[in-house]
Amino acid sequence: MRQEIEGQTGEVTWGARLNRRRFLRLVALGAGAGTLVSLGVACQQAAAPAPPKPAESKPGEAKPAEAKPAESKPAAEAKPAQQAPAVAGASPVIVMQGVDANTLDPAFRNSVPEFTMNAHVFSFHTWRDPKSLKIVPEFVQEWKLVDERTWEFKIPSGAKFHDGTPADAEAVKFSLTRQAKQQVGGKPTIQGTFGRLTSFDSAEVVNATTVRMKTKDPAAIVPDLLASVEVMPPGVYADESEANLAKIATQPVGSGAYKLVEWVKDDRVVLEAFDGYWGPKPNIKQVIVKPVPELSTRVLALQNGQADVIVNVAPDQVPIVERSEKGRISKVAGGRNIFIGMRYDRPFLTDKRVRQAFNYAFNFDAVNRALLNGAGTRTKTILNPPHEPPDVKPYPYDLEKAKSLLSEAGWKPGSDGILNKDGQKFSVTLMSPSGRYIKDKEIAQAVQQDLQRLGVEVELKVLDWSVYAGDILNKRDPSEIFLLGLGAPFTGQEELNYIHKDFSLNSTHWENDEYHKLFDELKVTLDDKKRQDLMNQMWAIAYDDPPWIYVYHQVDFYGVSKRIEWEAAATERIRMTEAKLVG
Q1: What is the CATH number of the domain that holds 358?
Q2: Given a cut of 50, is residue 360 above it in pLDDT?
Q3: Is residue 119 domain-resident?
């Protein structure tokens, strides 16, 4: 039985002021659904609390088919992705995530909780259908290749942003150009991946409803990547001064189905349906998104009618939700890779035999039984369907093989049992978030214990997500090893980009010349068969020379109120235009 992490600091709070104890008191007093809603909306804004101190455990303690480049979407089929009935939904829908957003600026967002907010506030150029996982039209309603390096996009006429300015061809040109930038306001962007993977050159307005985008090289992945590119008003986002960037990080303006009414950091985001929305009107008129780190609090809220969608329900909590009169489970095999990154730029981890040994030393079956109720499967490949190479297998648990590889690499046990080489102990720090992924800190502790059995001294440091993602990962400077989850695209190329040396969230700093050569070839290849062959070769390299301890593809369990119709998607995207109130 794996011991619990010690040293957790303080009581986990629900938002800035509503902690679990107060929530229980409200329930005991018979507070109805309206009580918490009024609390969430009526309270005046409070200063954001200081991030919790890290919890430390000392070493000795126990794609579906891509849009074909030569094809265009016929006008008759060019319907926006959102098709919810336009029947008024009177009461707010409450979505509870594990963490809050750090920024809502499209150029700098780096997590699904941030994407969830933006998916309501902004229109996206294309969208990935939550059921088929195919790319479908959204603001770009038709697309085609004019030549190998020129894409043409058709957009609707008469659309408006929330500030009343036109969402037109000029706005699309601006949005593509801004999202392709590697720096905005002198700071490296997170979403500049769009520019790098497409080899973006320029965008130009052809007429009021037509935009052309030129790339330096052929890029088959363009329609897929447009599903992660927001349409932004130039008048709001063109100013790259420090003051304006700070403003738009918390006061986004889009042309989506909802406009942001209020954001109280670490407490709530209030979204209201936008009367001037260019697409089908949403059934749900108000959405409140709340960060609630403690899973038990999220489950209790769902059971008592205080939440409508809750994320990251742990497998052992699934039966509790399913027995609830007011909640149910929506389960989906997700596309998110959970892994332990290993920093190639640290001397202890440069030798691939060491990184192979860490993979052999990880006992996933024990984690699966103890933490995931048997619901997980160890990562065989980081490529999501339909791009999985044939006959791939995960690293097996083999502690003796791991010890042998470390011995070959020159690491020998000292008198205290800790491995050493040239007079240096093998000592590393493992960083992990808490509450961002299912059983994240508990999985990190399991890895700590497995590596300790190997003879590695491991200090575990658990950090608040706002510190971990907002500071450390943005600087690409975590500890020697670190837990993270990335997902969930289904293009193959994007998954392989996660371990590319230039990817903005790759903090392993892994170098492999052959891998990067093949990736450059993949970027400019249009033929599907050739692309898959390149992906297979690249995965073989990443398996043999691993930048990660490959943990598992997360199976996602969402708690859903029985008063709404909504199902989880493998993309992890939560958008209430795809939901309907039924009770």
Answers
A1: 3.10.105.10
A2: yes
A3: yes
